[in-house]
């Protein structure tokens, strides 16, 4: 009789363990399906997500942005208006990540993640903005000037050749933004 009382709780414990195990495998399968969907969505984005990592002055640096294409459109002053905050990319906000403090155009910037915005101008220097709210799903639509950490002025350069897709590369003098005929070098040390 005592063996019977021990057998029933053991059977109940085993059935609970087995049912939890199957839920975990279902959850894992669901997570895998979600990851595959995310990868599939990534491939179908009109403006692919780009991540660039490298060193600036021997310090790790990362930039992540949506890379739109020109597609025959008028970019400056039209698709990207002058004198208005631009998310400097497409989709979610572009962000940079510094593992150590650096300087941007001579101004100190502490280690951390920052969204990158610009204010394009028809003539003269452009304003480059680094904002503490870096994880903005809708880019400049959620931009809050009160969260600006740094604003600097940078001189754009205009090139003869046109670049179809926006790129932000880690190169001298820090990072360089290129799109259409624009080249915007931002000094970072």
Summed up, what is this model?
The chain is 23% helix and 43% strand.
Number of helices: 1
Helix content: 10-25%
SSE ordering: HEEEEEEEEEE
Shape: globular
Report the span from N to C terminus.
79 Å
What Rg is obtained from the alpha carbons, in whole angstroms? Answer: 24 Å
Q: Please, what is the average pLDDT?
A: 83
Strand content: 35-45%
Uncertain stretches: 6-38
The counted number of beta strands is: 10
Sheet/helix structural class: alpha+beta
Q: What's the arrangement of strands in the largest beta sheet? A: 1-2-3-6-7-8
Largest sheet: 6 strands, antiparallel
Number of structural domains: 2
What does the model show?
It holds the Pfam family DUF2911. A hairpin with a 2-residue loop joins strand 9 (157-171) and strand 10 (174-187). With 189 residues, the protein is of the alpha+beta class. Mean pLDDT is 83; it is low at 6-38. The longest helix has 43 residues, at 2-44. It is built from one helix and ten strands; from the N terminus they run αββββββββββ. The chain is globular. It has two domains: 1-44; 49-187, no CATH class. The strands form three sheets. The protein has a six-stranded antiparallel sheet, with no helix packed on it. A two-stranded antiparallel ribbon has the order 4-5. A two-stranded antiparallel sheet has the order 9-10.
